[in-house]
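Why do we care about 3D structure at all? Because function follows from shape, and shape follows, mostly, from sequence. That is the central idea of this module. The next example makes it concrete: a single protein chain, its amino acid sequence, and then its structure expressed as tokens.
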Amino acid sequence: MANKLRIIAGNWRSRNIHFNDAPGLRPTPARVRETVFNWLNYDIIGSRCLDLYAGSGALSFEAASRGAKAVVQVENNPQTCRTLKENAVTLAADHIKLVQSDVFKFLAGDAQTFDIVFIDPPFHQGLALQTCHWLEDKQWLSPHAKIYLEAESSLKLDGFPDGWQLLKSKVAGDVGYHLLQRNAVS
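And the structure:
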């Protein structure tokens, strides 16, 4: 399999994970991942992470490598799920759980709370903000959860759930990547 990427840091530093060709699958580039994990540096260790639209798993494997306590990957494509599972087995990543499901069917289920959520949906389908609202409305987030959103650079950064604050935002080519924080009202 020719498609591979290297984990940047942590227990699996320099290890490769593989990914398959699938429509809309765009692994987060290494320089973007480096920036994102610099943003999340003090939040990763011991956190519970949710990777929605997991795709290559670049974000969730990186989080697990850097000390996340538990990681849940949600992916709908069966072939992509097989590759994610193979990567987890190769890395002996027993703290990563893979759920093969549509993201909205998953979020309609029994909520668990997560400290960090990665959202990297297919572009130009209106899924980014809808996913953010489902996370909030269905109570999937810890009180001060951090949410990483990767979307088309043309996405308007408004309409987030009440109490969400944009902390960081950058653009790399056609991709906008953003870090938000939920500030729960007591």
